[in-house]
Amino acid sequence: MAGEFDNIHQGLTQLGALKILKSSVEELDSKSDFYMAASHLINFPGEETVNGLIGFLQISSQDSSVLLAQRKAVEVLGRLRCQEAQTVIGQFLASKDIYMVENAAWALGQLICQDSAFHEQMISLLAEPSQNRRVLIQTLSSLDVDQAIPHFEELKCDEMPSVAGAAVAALAKLRILSKDEVEKLSENLFLPNQMDRQSAVQDIIDARQVDLLADVTKAPVSPSFKMRALKLLLNDEQLEAPYGIELVKRVILDRPEEIVVLHHYEDAQDPAFLVTELFCPDFSRCYLAMQHLVATNGQLVWPFLHKSWSDRAHNDYGAHYFFMHLFGFVDTWPDEALPIIKELLLNAIQDQRPQFKKSPPAALLSLSMRFPDLFMDQMDALRSDCTIFSWQKRFACLEALGFLPQSSWPETIQPFLLQLVASDPEPTVRLKAQELLKH
Fold it and tell me: What is the share, in percent, of the chain residues with pLDDT greater than 70?
């Protein structure tokens, strides 16, 4: 139920949020106050919150601040699993606002709605290209609405990959497609549009296609999407198989040469351009730039990398992540760069910003490659208190430990690995520790 970005208005109380929702537009300090209040109430599950949000949904207004906040209120009621809100939410399936229809359909899925009238309404909306048919398909599939199956059959060849993929996933879940038809989902992982690629990862999750996970790890999308697929689809037994833990390692290491990129350069590109490409929202372009940067002398790259860090990379979570990996992948940095790189890596390991959660594991891996002695200090911190490290950081620590010769390991490492095998709550960490003990 809880999300990483839910409690960002920590000075706002439940009473304060409910009071805002009862205010008129004219009484607001800011047009965004309604939206802020509706969002913040996710932190206060209970009758007062439910009544406040339902009451807000019953306000009739064409003011954009109200309409935006009502969309959010529907989402929050869905996330809170408020069954008593089902009727109110279902009424918004008839809204002229396609984004409200999308939120209403999604929320009904969260509420496991069994109202056949709402099911029929969602099925009828599948015939309207202006609607978010992907969300409608996902909701109807999650609710096991058999009447929707013929419509899924029609949409599996839709010209929109995200719609066709969702329909294929829905049919695959019912085991009424051939293996060849289902495996076509992997083709969508390498489409030109990044949103389509991200949707393809979710479709593979929804279709529960473990056999396609190797393709997922090669796709040019954020590693967060890939890791989510692995965590949702691989059970403990599959993780213990050689391919299972290898897939997790591949995503954590994120070596650019293992990613299938969809772009190419006609000519050689200078380091300044390549560094700039790390800020691109399209991960295919980022990975292409990484492939070329890794093959470029670090002395040529460093001036542009350093300036970009100071200018904006320190606060851009995408580029920040790639910078952390690049510090480890390249071993030709100039001497004057090393103290700066060391400080950046150490700071990144401790970074608590939710948007930057991909960076600490990458920084740990790079620290072990560039500064192995300092990396051992991180191992000491992990041994002293495992709870301060996320499972991804714990796994990265163990993966990085494997880079170093066992002769350099202190005597405390083996007992610690045994402890992890016996008691770490994360299966991938236990398996990685077990793997290290065998070598």
Answer: 98
CB atoms within 10 A of CB 408: 11
Residue 72 Cα to chain centre, angstroms:
20
| pLDDT confidence of residue 68 | 97
Total length of the chain? 439
Rg (the chain; Cα; Å): 25
Q: Which two tokens stand for residue 11?
A: 């000075």
Does pLDDT of 9 surpass 70? no
**Cβ partners under 8 Å of residue 175, min gap 6:** none
Q: In this structure, which amino acid lies at residue 209?
A: Q
DSSP one-letter code for 341? H
Residue reference for tokens 């007992």: 415
Asked if 57 and 73 touch (Cβ cutoff 8 Å), the reply is yes
CA 411 vs CA 380, 406, 408, 429: distances in Å: 12, 10, 9, 20
Cα(379)–Cα(243) distance, integer angstroms: 26
Six token digits for residue 380: 């000491």
Nearest to 214 by CA among 176, 244, 194, 236: 244
Tell me if 311 sits within 8 A of 346, measured CB to CB.
no
For residue 361, the SS3 value is helix
The CATH fold assigned to 271-437 is Leucine-rich Repeat Variant (1.25.10)
**Neighbour count for residue 62 (Cβ, 10 Å):** 6
Reported as a pLDDT band with limits 50, 70 and 90, residue 121 is: very high
Q: pTM for this one?
A: 0.91
For the chain, what is the largest distance between any 2 Cα atoms, rounded to a whole number of angstroms?
72
For the chain, count helices (H), then strands (E): 26, 0
Is the Cβ–Cβ distance between 186 and 212 less than 8 Å? yes
Give the residue among 228, 240, 209, 251 at the shortest CA–CA distance from 428: 240
- Whole-number Cα distances in Å, 269 to 41, 266, 327, 414: 49, 9, 20, 46
